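Entry type: protein chain
Record version: 2
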Amino acid sequence: MVNQEKAIQNSLLQALDSGIEDMLAGRELPYEEAKKKIAQIRGARKDEKAKSAFN
């Protein structure tokens, strides 16, 4: 369980680092665009899960 917790922590830290790098490089989306993009990504993930459930 300790290894899994470390893996999760490392993954979160990498995501934060990536987000900070994006902000510093000016790769940010306005709030409303970000919400739309998140909804789009979630929809694509749901579609992918549904497709894999039928295979």
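Comment: The mean pLDDT is 90.
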